Amino acid sequence: MKKGIDYLTRGIEVILVLLLASMAVMVFANVVMRYGFNSGLAISEEMSRFFFVWLTFIGAVVTFKENGHLGVETLVRMFGRRGRMICMALTNALIIMCAVILFWGTWLQQPINASVIAPVSRMPMIYVFGVTYFAAVGIGIIAAVRLFRVLTNTVSEAELRQFAGEYDDDSQLVGRSE
Amino acid sequence: AQYQDRTFRVSNGINEDHPVGDGVRAMQACLDERTGGALKLNAFWGNALGGDLQATQSLRSGTLEMVITSSSPLVGIVPALGVFDLPFLFSNEQEADAILDGEFGDYIAGLLPEFGLVNLAYWENGFRNLTNSRGPVEKWEDFEGLKVRVMQNNIFLDTFANMGANATPMAFGEVFSALETRAIDAQENPFVTIDTSQFYEVQDYLSVTNHAYTPFMVLFSKPIWDTLSEDEQTAMSDCAVVGRDAQRAAGRALASESLARVREAGMQINEISPEEQARMVEKAQVVYERHAEEIGVEVVERMQAALAELRAQ
Amino acid sequence: MIILVFLASLLGSMAIGLPVAFALMFTGIVLMSFMGIFNPQILAQNMIEGANTFTLLAIPFFLLAGELMNQGGLSKRIINFAISFVGHLRGGLGIVAIVAAIIMASLSGSAAADSAALAAILIPMMRDAGYNVPRSAGLIAAGGIIAPVIPPSIAFIIFGVAANVSITQLFLAGITPGIIMGLGLLVVWQFIARRDKVATLPRQDWPARLKATADAGWALLMPVIILGGIRFGVFTPTEAAVVAAAYALFVGLFIYRELKIADLYFVLLRAAKTTSVVMFLVASALVSAWLITSANIPGEVGNLIRPLIDNPTLLLFAIIALVLVVGTALDLAPTILILSPVLMPIIRQAGIDPVYFGVLFVMTTCIGLITPPVGIVLNVVSGVARVPMGKVIGGVLPFLLAHIAVLVLLILFPELVLTPLRWLRG
Ligand code: NA
Ligand code: NA
C-alpha cells in the first residue's frame, strides 16, 4: 500500500517536472522566434498557460500531502496532544468540505466548459478546467485519511508536529515560502 | 405591473468614465421610472468581477446576472459572434445601427438562449482605428511589416497578417509600455480608448481605417432571466434599449471629443481615401472566405444579404 | 456586518491551523452562504481563472532561475565579491552582509532563500570573528527581506495582477526604495559596530578585487539582463523571467560548472512545488476576492475611512499601519491577495499613484516577515544560524525599526520613490 502511494507520488512528480520544463521551453522559444525570426507561435502562449493551470492543481495535491501549504500555526503550537488532535480533526473536516464543494462546482460547470473552445488550440476548455476534479479528489482523500487517523487515535507524534508547523529540516521552511 | 425588489450585478471590463457608464445610468433611470425603484443595477467596473469571458461564463452558470462585453471574447462560446470580428463589415454607424437593431440583430440574439445567455440590446464600442509610430497608413500596402498588437482572436490576427503586418497578440495592460519601448509599432482601438489610454503620448500617427466594428452586448443570465416575471423581463429589455440610445449618443459625442484631443496632443491624423478604402475591403475579402466555416456559413450569408438589402435602399 | 463575517471566518479557521489557501476557500463558502447566493460553481470557476493568467507565469520562471542560481554556487561568489570591496571598512562582515543582500535581491525574489543562503555562509564567519551572533542573525534577516522589494519580485508580480498595475513599472519603482532600505540598515549597523568594536577584514588589493569581480561577473550580469530587458522593452516580465532561467542554467552548467544535469530534475521539482503552493493560494484568494467585491466590502471599508480620503498622507499612514498589523501574522502573498481587492478602490479614489502604493505595500508586507508571531524569515535564520527564535527577535529589533523609519520617510516624501522612477522610465 505504502509502496503504491510512493510510486504514484513519484509519477505525479515526474508530470510536474515535465509540465514546468515544457512551459519554460515554449515561452523561451517564443522569445527567440520573435527576435530571431520576427514571428511567434500564438499556440505557445495558450498552451503554456494551460500547463500552468495543470501544474498548479496537480502540484497542490502533492504539496498538500507534504503539509506544504502555508498556515499560521502559532495557536496550535501552544496546545498539547489533545488540543492539537481536535484542531487537526476540525481542519481536515473543513478541507474535506472545500474539496467536496470544489468537485461539485466543477461537475456543475462541466457542460459550460465542455462547450467553450480555446481560441488558438481549439481545445474544449473542460480539459483545462477539469483538473480541479483531480485536485478535489486527491486533497479530499488525503484529508479523509488524516481525519480517520485522528478519530481512531492512530495519528503519530511526527504527523502532529508537522500539522503544528514544527519542522526538523530548515530547507522545508524555505521551500514553503516564495 | 408587478415588480419584486431585485438587484442585478453588472460586470464591465472598462471603467465607469466610458460611455457605457452613461448607458448604465440611463438604463437605471428608466428602470426607476418603470418599476418604482424595484429593479436595481449594481455595476462593477474595470474587470473587478473577472474578465469578460469569465463573467459571461458566470452568467451561463447563474452565479452573476449581467455583463456588458464586446462580442469578440465570446466567439469561443458562440462561434456565430465571430461575424462581428470580420474586417470592414460596416461602412458607417448608421449601417451598424440598422443591422444590429434590425432583423439580423434579432437573429443573432435568438441564437444565445441555447448558450444560457439573453441579449438585451447592442450598445456601441465604436469603429476601431490604427495608430502607429512609423508613418501614416494610407493604403493596405502600408501595413507591410508593421508590428501590430491585436486581441487574442483568430479573425483579427488573420486580418492583419493578410495585410502583411506582423500581428502580435498581447494583453491590453502591456500595450502602453510595449509601444513606448518600440517593442511593437502599432495598436488598434476605438478613438475613445486611444484617448483614455493616452496612446497619443507614445504614437505619432492615427489612421482612420474603420477596419472593425465589434458591438457591446448587454447580456443577462438565462437561468436567472427565467425566474423574472414577464413584466420584469419587458422592463429590462425596454430599458436596455433606452440605455442603448443614451450610450450611443454619449459614445459618438465623446469619440469626436477624443479625436480632437489626440489631434491637439500632436497626433497626425489621416483619413483613407474612398478608392484606397475600397482596395482594403477588397484585400480583406479572403478573410471572410477563410473564416466562414467556423462562424457558420449561414450566419455570414445572412449578414451579407442584410447588408446588400440595406445598401440597395 | 459582512466585514465581521469575513474576518471571523478567515481568522477563526486560520487560528485552528487551516492552511491559508483553504481558509480563503472556506471564507468564500461562508460569504456566499451568508449573502444567500451559495453556488459551488463560484468556487470552481474562480479558482481556475486565478491560475489561468499568462502574466503569472513569471512566478515559476523566476523561482526556477533562483533555484538554478543557488545550485550553481552563486551566493558564495557574490559574498566574496562584497568582501573584497567592503570587508575592510568599519562594520566589516555586517557591511558585507548588507551589500551582498542587495546584490542577491536583484537576482532572486525570495526573502527566505536569500536569508538562508546569506546566513549559511556569513554566520559561521561572524561567529568566528567574535560578532554578537543574535545581532548578526537579525541583520541578515533584515537584509534578506530586501529581496522582494528590489526586482525581480514575486510579490510585485502578484500585486500587479491582483491590483491591475503594470509589473514593469513596479519593478522599476522598487529599485530605489530597496537600496534605501539597505542604507537604513547600514546607518544602524554603524552605531552597533562602533559600540561593539567589531572586527574588520584585511583590505584587499586591486588584483584580488578584479578576480572576485570576474568570478561574480556572470551572476552580476543577470540583473542587467532582467532589468535592462524590461526597461528597454526587449522582454515582458514573463519573458524576462524565462530568459533569466535560461541564463542561470547556462552559467550553472557551463561557466561555474557546479550544476549537474542530474540536479536538474530536483531543481525543476522544487520550483514546480513552490509554484503550486503560491498559485493554489492565488487561486483560492480569487474566490474570496470575487465575493468580497460582489458584497461591496471595499465600499464599506471605504465609508469607514472616508474622512481620511482628502488627506492622502494620513490615509496612507492608516492603511500601512493596517497592513503592518496583518503582516505580523501573515506571509507576503496572502497579505497582498487578501488586502488588494479591499484597498485598491480606496487608493485609486484618493488619487494615490498605484505604483507608489504598491512599493509601500510590498515593503510593509516584507517587514512582516521579520516580526513575531509569524515571521518566516526569522524562522529560517534562526534555524540556519542555530540561534533560538527569541534571541533572533531581540537581534532584529533595531533593524526592524530602521525599516519602519524608511517606510515613514517614503510616506512623508513620495518623491523619494517617484523621482527616481521618472528617471528610470526615461
Ligand atoms: Na528581488
Ligand atoms: Na510577521
TrEMBL record, chain A:
It is a multi-pass membrane protein. One of its GO terms (biological process) is C4-dicarboxylate transport. The chain crosses the membrane at residues 12-35, 47-64, 85-105, 125-148. InterPro entries: DctQ (IPR055348), TRAP_DctQ (IPR007387). Residues 23-152 form the Tripartite ATP-independent periplasmic transporters DctQ component domain. GO terms for cellular component: plasma membrane. The keyword Transmembrane applies. Its main location: membrane. The keyword Transport applies. GO terms for molecular function: transmembrane transporter activity. It is found in: Cell inner membrane. Keywords: Cell inner membrane, Cell membrane, Membrane, Transmembrane, Transmembrane helix, Transport. Part of the tripartite ATP-independent periplasmic (TRAP) transport system. Belongs to the TRAP transporter small permease family. The complex comprises the extracytoplasmic solute receptor protein and the two transmembrane proteins. This is TRAP transporter small permease protein.
UniProtKB/TrEMBL annotation, chain C:
Residues 8-416 form the TRAP C4-dicarboxylate transport system permease DctM subunit domain. Pfam families: DctM. It comes from the Bacteria. It is found in: Cell inner membrane. One of its GO terms (molecular function) is transmembrane transporter activity. Its main location: membrane. One of its GO terms (cellular component) is plasma membrane. Keywords: Cell inner membrane, Cell membrane, Membrane, Transmembrane, Transmembrane helix, Transport. The keyword DNA repair does not apply. The chain crosses the membrane at residues 47-66, 78-103, 109-126, 138-163, 169-192, 213-234, 240-256, 277-295, 315-343, 355-376, 396-418. It is a multi-pass membrane protein. Part of the tripartite ATP-independent periplasmic (TRAP) transport system. NCBIfam families: dctM (TIGR00786). Belongs to the TRAP transporter large permease family. The complex comprises the extracytoplasmic solute receptor protein and the two transmembrane proteins. This is TRAP transporter large permease protein. It comes from Arsenicitalea aurantiaca. The lineage of its organism: Bacteria, Pseudomonadati, Pseudomonadota, Alphaproteobacteria, Hyphomicrobiales.
